[in-house]
Amino acid sequence: MEQKIKKILQEVATGSLKVEEAIQQLQKESLTNLEFARIDHDRAVRCGTPEVVFGPGKTPEAICEIMQIILEKHGYALATRLSPEAAAMLQAEWPDCDYNEPARTVLLGTPPISHDDSQAVWVIAAGTSDLPVAEEACVSVSYAGYPVERLYDVGVAGIHRVLQHQDRLATAGAIIVVAGMEGALPSVVGGLVSAPIIAVPTSIGYGASFGGIAALLGMLNSCASGVTVVNIDNGFGAGAAASRILSRQQNFKKKE
Amino acid sequence: MEQKIKKILQEVATGSLKVEEAIQQLQKESLTNLEFARIDHDRAVRCGTPEVVFGPGKTPEAICEIMQIILEKHGYALATRLSPEAAAMLQAEWPDCDYNEPARTVLLGTPPISHDDSQAVWVIAAGTSDLPVAEEACVSVSYAGYPVERLYDVGVAGIHRVLQHQDRLATAGAIIVVAGMEGALPSVVGGLVSAPIIAVPTSIGYGASFGGIAALLGMLNSCASGVTVVNIDNGFGAGAAASRILSRQQNFKKKE
Amino acid sequence: MEQKIKKILQEVATGSLKVEEAIQQLQKESLTNLEFARIDHDRAVRCGTPEVVFGPGKTPEAICEIMQIILEKHGYALATRLSPEAAAMLQAEWPDCDYNEPARTVLLGTPPISHDDSQAVWVIAAGTSDLPVAEEACVSVSYAGYPVERLYDVGVAGIHRVLQHQDRLATAGAIIVVAGMEGALPSVVGGLVSAPIIAVPTSIGYGASFGGIAALLGMLNSCASGVTVVNIDNGFGAGAAASRILSRQQNFKKKE
Amino acid sequence: MEQKIKKILQEVATGSLKVEEAIQQLQKESLTNLEFARIDHDRAVRCGTPEVVFGPGKTPEAICEIMQIILEKHGYALATRLSPEAAAMLQAEWPDCDYNEPARTVLLGTPPISHDDSQAVWVIAAGTSDLPVAEEACVSVSYAGYPVERLYDVGVAGIHRVLQHQDRLATAGAIIVVAGMEGALPSVVGGLVSAPIIAVPTSIGYGASFGGIAALLGMLNSCASGVTVVNIDNGFGAGAAASRILSRQQNFKKKE
Amino acid sequence: MEQKIKKILQEVATGSLKVEEAIQQLQKESLTNLEFARIDHDRAVRCGTPEVVFGPGKTPEAICEIMQIILEKHGYALATRLSPEAAAMLQAEWPDCDYNEPARTVLLGTPPISHDDSQAVWVIAAGTSDLPVAEEACVSVSYAGYPVERLYDVGVAGIHRVLQHQDRLATAGAIIVVAGMEGALPSVVGGLVSAPIIAVPTSIGYGASFGGIAALLGMLNSCASGVTVVNIDNGFGAGAAASRILSRQQNFKKKE
Amino acid sequence: MEQKIKKILQEVATGSLKVEEAIQQLQKESLTNLEFARIDHDRAVRCGTPEVVFGPGKTPEAICEIMQIILEKHGYALATRLSPEAAAMLQAEWPDCDYNEPARTVLLGTPPISHDDSQAVWVIAAGTSDLPVAEEACVSVSYAGYPVERLYDVGVAGIHRVLQHQDRLATAGAIIVVAGMEGALPSVVGGLVSAPIIAVPTSIGYGASFGGIAALLGMLNSCASGVTVVNIDNGFGAGAAASRILSRQQNFKKKE
Amino acid sequence: MEQKIKKILQEVATGSLKVEEAIQQLQKESLTNLEFARIDHDRAVRCGTPEVVFGPGKTPEAICEIMQIILEKHGYALATRLSPEAAAMLQAEWPDCDYNEPARTVLLGTPPISHDDSQAVWVIAAGTSDLPVAEEACVSVSYAGYPVERLYDVGVAGIHRVLQHQDRLATAGAIIVVAGMEGALPSVVGGLVSAPIIAVPTSIGYGASFGGIAALLGMLNSCASGVTVVNIDNGFGAGAAASRILSRQQNFKKKE
Amino acid sequence: MEQKIKKILQEVATGSLKVEEAIQQLQKESLTNLEFARIDHDRAVRCGTPEVVFGPGKTPEAICEIMQIILEKHGYALATRLSPEAAAMLQAEWPDCDYNEPARTVLLGTPPISHDDSQAVWVIAAGTSDLPVAEEACVSVSYAGYPVERLYDVGVAGIHRVLQHQDRLATAGAIIVVAGMEGALPSVVGGLVSAPIIAVPTSIGYGASFGGIAALLGMLNSCASGVTVVNIDNGFGAGAAASRILSRQQNFKKKE
Fold it and tell me: What ipTM describes this predicted complex?
């Protein structure tokens, strides 16, 4: 955008463009250029994560096409919430892609990854049924270039197992806690360590869990202060939130 | 009731009452007597706890009058959810009554009490704000004749304190767990011991706690199996549930 | 765990281990051992019921594998909420297993069972549609070793039938009342006897029953005091709650 | 209205009014007259009950004024949901009015009343707290000219008392059942008799009664078929519904 | 029951039965007999309508079996909410049965029917999509022996059509108004006539109709006083409510 | 803003400003100027209505101060949702202001007003209790310069009265329909005329009206197509929506 | 209708009809004629849009039949919410029909269309998943005869793109903004221009979007005043609302 | 704790304590000491923020007492959600305290504060009514030792003002966005920068904002990925979440 504005001003300076015409051109360009700037830089520059293809409502063909474009531009690409059909077509097209079946994601290429352990994001899941959501969070964090540590099947009943990792959890870059049912796990973890905690309610449960509302309310009302919450089953969003947090740490060094 | 039926039958046997008239009298009496039987025995005989006066919607005068009747019949009486005015009038009438201000209850006389520690009911409260509900539960349990142990201010953050009492909790007759906010404490306690657990959600909290709904849903969805739940803020009901449980234990011996 | 601590202390006593090193070893071991202790004793020792395999989200193969492990350790094993496929595979593997089709459970082996009638758990169901939830409760109680009495199809319209059994209900160890629609049955039963009552709302009903919410709210607001509630359709949880209650009774004698 | 139309047509017949002008006048009048007809006949003729003054949102002065107009037209008048101020002003104006304090109603004059017992409306209330709503229903029924029978404080626990009146209930013209908490009473009554039953949920209760929603849902889901429901606390509406039912009975004879 | 009591009393009178034994026999018999009385008379005697078979949760075979029993006892029988499979089996078994496809009901035999027009029940439906619920109401009314008048597809936009029938509606025995979406039709009809009105909300609609909640709330809050409401989509319940109302009218004469 | 950009460009043209410096100045100015432009023109230019002072959360003093500023800039000013204290202070400050007590608004000065009847906005209210919301809508429309016609107290029962004005309603610029309870009035009006209709649900009602939710849902599900809805009790918003609609009409001629 | 009234009056004037008979005939005709008028003119005359066939709950055959009738009467016809089967049958019957697959609509014939740009309706959609609802709105607007401008995939993140069209949006006849998830787009657009804005929440989203409730609430609470809302996913309703607005503009000239 | 363990081990080493006795002592001490450790270090050590006194449910006297203890231990102390009475008593006790009236907080002493701008937390509020919640967040962040930047009154309509600060926002340590009504602001900010964003819904709004639910749902469904949410009105929790994030940044250097 600056190039175009510079050109206009230079033409004004050389007299080849009248002031009135320059005003008109500037008004038009400012928006158009902003618009183009947005497309080029968008997520990779401004938000830290390259664009991700959200599967639902897109045909397998459309997903493949968009993935191809992102892959060419960034060298790697991610699609989430894939139907089995879409996943199959992506695997057929890119046989060496990384298909995470429970997470329903496909990753093409290899994102640059940090090797700084203080930037590790821990993903803790209360039950085995919460695994798909937890895995989506893991994939999302990896895509943004941060190391992931998994700690699964540690519901409130298995609190000793969380305690075993208390020291390492205390130095984590961020902690994502995935839980359904009553959603109590983030409160317990939040009481143990001072790391940033992102709670993800899942729709796991039955009866009065109401598709995750019980867990969502439980997490919003956590007695451990400073616990934040994302939408029900939104593993990807939790990973994105963790990436926002990690992007603040100055000693961030990604390695190709 | 049996006395009246006996009298009718004896009159039939002696011929002073005709069969047809006896049928009519029996039909009338059976219900009337059942009705009176209900009033006499009702709670004290059938449900283990003498009737309790529920304060709201009654004038202080009416409460005093009913308390007087129960006191005469049973030797002790309890009123709950008292307005300050009603409590004041009861205290004026019976200066040596037992007024529990946070629980908003007044107890007249002394209920017979068990001294068997295996029948102790533990009342655990997550936060200091849950105290009024917890105290109402305590009063309710005492009124039914069982010993009470209090363990307050032990939210999920203070889990070590609960652990300290794990041995004694394991032998409790029943455990009432009172909690607001996300209501996670019953899950933690339920994972530690095999005693019967009655969870009481409180309306403590703000924002999306929605007057106790968050805690209620959390408790209904507890991952610790066998946790049961009563209505929001229903300390009295939790005490009554504990009394039902204790009444099953054969070695129950109350002492005056 | 005690063995390892003993060994450390003996090494300290004999001087083969320095005090400082012993401190470090103790800190590490305490958690690891607690953890292992948890796995060994967990439910069978601490909570009265051996672990139960919850079917949803597990493959039939995984269910078979876990059942095999529990069967070897405890001599009997239970799986709940089984898909037809999972049930079929379990039946193929253990042809003499006990498959309760409406309850969707499979039991391997024979749990030790109490023959004390005062420990019988009555399971009362309002309508025939509530039967699957009621049966799940029955299986859960049997698994924990207590005798079960069934009383089905006795909605509020059939109140006389409940009255017929009033005497035996009055001596029950615990009563589980399963009802959908308006969920009024626990109030009626709770008004008749002083036994512990666990109400289970079911998702049976239509229109404004909202998948069991009407019954759940009805039960939470029961005018019969001391009625406790578990989650919608949670027959297993009700059985577990009854088992917690029965485990308190001192004269408990299981027979192999 | 017919008078005005007649007059127009007579003018047309006599030639004193042109056809075109008559068309215009007819169009205007038809609505205007319908409108006035509506005011004159409205409730007293079409709906069986003279207009009732709904207190909220009206000043005491305005209420007095409207009552005066209705009193003059019909010989009696009713105001509901009165604030203490409005009730006081009405009592000052008409010292011999009938002020029902719990129902918050004032009745001026005496409505004609049926003396046919088969047209009696029974108003049954579960608890003493439901009395204001029940009384509003009673006043509403009396205002429409039907006899009222009250049966209060007969919750599900007091079912024997309802049974005592089963014979007379069976011949009632209509039964209004008022209940809060879990709202189970209409199911019990509906299972006993074939009379029309109008259930009124009240906002009595606490915790998860949610201002009457629990009772409302319980009544909508009643297992006794043919129970109908009106809005929460809507005693007046229940009385109006009963009046609609009674107005169908051919042998209806009101006596001044 | 009276016969047995009489026999006991006669034995007492003749001295062949002791008073003490008589008391025991009376207590036992009273419940047993009440119980049997209930089964014999139940709905046909006490509630005006013979038992109806509710299809969901029953196998086609079970439905056929129960229908056979009722048919033998009463001469006619009705099943509702039938799956296509159950309907097919009933049609195969009784080829001349009356299968109402939209209502999903099958009627065997012919119920006695009143020919008194003042007992006609009008069933008004707002839209064509509400037809299945309306038809279920019609079948339910016919089964109870009352004549039915249908008035379909007269939403609030077609109010003139309702006006056309105002005279006959005004003399109807009862009016059932079936509507989805905003559920405004009962308010309009309720403003026109003084007949009893039973509103049935349907789950028809989309978006924020929330499966009939919008219509349900609209009807509960109707500005036309005396409108009563049944559960969402509960055509059968509306018919049963209308039957309760009609059963009150003394000049009721059914004809075979 | 254009003036500043022109000046910069002229300096570039004359060489008194370097291209690089000009780029920096342009970037700064564009936002600052946009910002200032926003304040000057905002509502009066872009949205058709001068800024309105929303009372809640502001001190009476602050309200007076802001009103003074707007009055100076535009010649007239409006404040809404005023507390009695704020209204009193405004009246003290500007004794000849226009205080609409039910609407809780104060208007200073006189907005220019259109005298084109085809631009009249009709405000229809179902009940007298809906008047405050309706009046707020009227004030809001007048403030934007359009004529207002009021039609109050015409609930669904008074439909003939609406019919009387059908012709004039048919030519209205826009119609605002205010209703509480079941919110059926917009459906009726929407079925009569093709004018734009803005429905305003009010929190008037009781029981299951849930503070206006019943009316809101009723209006969203209106069977009359093309009815739009604003927030509960949002009379001001409805007026603003009507103003947006009127501002489209080319023959708009305001007169001072 | 006037013709018939005129005839009656003329007969009265000539004496061939008696006044009493004329009164009776007038009463009958007024309703019948109103009724017939309604059928003839209904939507095309009174509401600006010919009747539209709503697909759900109708068989493909029935849809074809109704379309045929409307086509004959008006020269064009529209069906919405078509199942694939219904769409296929319509295409088979009218091979040159206009089938909009995402919108699930079929248009027969060509509606007259305005060529006045100031009457253009802009349809803005936040995401690609909102497209079906947006397209339904477009079809609905075209059917009513107004030009449509589409602006898709401009979520809050793409706000610059909306800004690019600010000038043309400012002169739009009406703007329909379709958005799911948090539904923030109407607030942004409403802050930019003074045109009438109709917000359509879509059921797009997951977790706590609750099928469009989040978007619906967001739009009802928009901080941009004067934004109106229609039901979730109700693209057709939004188009109808826009048509109501455009029908007010006097310079409306449709061209065949 | 280590001191006590060391002492036990030394006694074992010297033979003054038997191994068996040592095991028992170790088991007891481990919990007791953990407990004391918890009290000493709790928040200041483990969670980064010293304990904060939550005002509601505590008497002014109790608040003063607890503040005194914390002040002595840490040198500074904070109380939140203070009633005017509690605030007055604290001000009387510590006249130079820092009372933030809108935030309802009192700060005693001065917390150590970071002077690293990259650790600044921006607190953005949509409207003036959101100020109390925003100020509570500011106080909470300051208490934890991080610099605060305020940006108030920048609703979606004032988006240009946010754009002005885009550069500095992009380098913020964390951003707290406080908004009521439709809660759209976090989506806009989240689309502009990659910094961590914590959204706080407020209960500001009316009608269908339902006490903040609309804003809460809007934020949970934000189309800007990686936005996290805390409870309604929970400014303190948002500050605590920001502090958790900042505590991760290695170059954290607080200055006295």
Answer: 0.80
